[in-house]
Design goal:
Layout (H helix, E strand, L loop, with lengths): L6 E5 L4 H12 L3 E6 L8 E3 L18 E4 L13 H21 L4 E5 L25 H17 L6 E6 L2 E3 L5 H11 L13 E5 H12 L6 E5 L5 E2 L1 H12 L10 H10 L6 H5 L7 H5 L8 H10 L3
Parallel strand pairs: 1-2, 1-4, 2-3, 4-5, 5-6, 6-9, 7-8
Antiparallel strand pairs: 8-10
Length: about 300
Amino acid sequence: MKDGRFVVLLTGANGFVGRNVVPVLKSNGMIVRQAMRKPSSEANTVIIDAVGPHTNWQTALVGVDAVVHLAARVHHPREEDAAEIYRSINTEGTLHLARSAAKAGVSQFLYLSTVLVNGSSTDGRPPFREDDRLAPRGVYGMSKAVAEAGLEAMVKDTDMNITVVRPPLIYGAGALGNFRLLATAVDRGIPLPFGSIHNRRVFLGVANLASFIVHRLTHQQDKFDIFLVADEEQVSTPEFVRRIATTLGKKARIVPLPLFALKAVLRISGRSETYDSVAGSLEVDTSKALKTGWRPQVSLDEGLRSALIAAT
């Protein structure tokens, strides 16, 4: 505590999620120490060369009550060739930071993982739950799953409470990846071949993620816990596109294409790995998070307005 205020070290502060989480933490009376790789004009920042198994966190952790660990390696053009990068940053880097935090007397550690540790699809099965047997998707998902296991093993040797949050696709102002691609396509009036898709997918507005992080930091915790966190609505891919179009004041151009043909098109274009995330279902059971007393702060439509109107 500093002057009676909670001190939080936030990694990944200048990333998409971090930029949205920082002001929410501050508005809730917390002092946020932002870990960054490059010098910044932002107040209360610390420079960290890289998140890895040998990072020196000693100075950054002085006087810190909680660590919110968002930093991770997410995208690599050839994921299978980058297993060592994912292991070094997402697994060993996370565990080294957690050990350093525990040694420094930090009381809470919140780790942003991914729903992909559960798997890539819920087709033919119930929504994912926290206690499911894990089936990590790809090298990225595996690196997060191994980090989770290491954090759980760590709690018996420390007084630090550890929370793991598994989000689905996060959208909001400044989001990149598939959300940005979809929004750009809709804005430009590009026809999207999703008319034959009848799935259900889960999304998470960054405002809702930020509110859960605050809720978790300010309420009594178990020693180790995992939460699947998402928006209240879970909709189909075509419906998500329609919601984006409505927000932008555009008409969604969704055309029917047989699923086998869609799969072939994605394979030919070198994006076969995206088929599940477009055509497959991915639902989660958020009842555990809701039982803590947390509720999503914004609806899907409100989250899209915040994400898309801010960008125009």
